[in-house]
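=== Structural record ===
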Amino acid sequence: MTPRRTISSFRRKKARQLRANATDPEVRLWRHLRRSPLLGSHFRRQVPIGPYVADFACMAARLIIEVDGSQHGDAALKARDDVRTRWLEREGYRVLRFWNNELSENIKGVLEAIHAAVYGSRDSDAMTLKHKRRSKAP
């Protein structure tokens, strides 16, 4: 008898598949996030969270970044995205969405928006993140 797969193992497998087949805009953003000097932050890609797999997540800041292609402009898919966003927000996450073309035409603006979301607005105290980055030994 074969062991029964759990929903959790299914989402982990799906996340691995998504990481292996990232879109060009996702690869571009990931390159920047990996090199990002956002102290105390650590982004992961294709992260299973509840019933969903987020494109990028900084768990310390409870921030999720979604990269949307043109198909997300379709009314039915937009409605599903809205349900997903509301669920993630109820779980305590903030969700930023960027269109694919924003990553190719305005990566600096996208990174500034992410920085602002991680560290808060000027009106609020900057949050202290607990994650410490470690350099990989050569």
Observations:
- The beta strands are 43-49, 52-58, 63-68, 94-99.
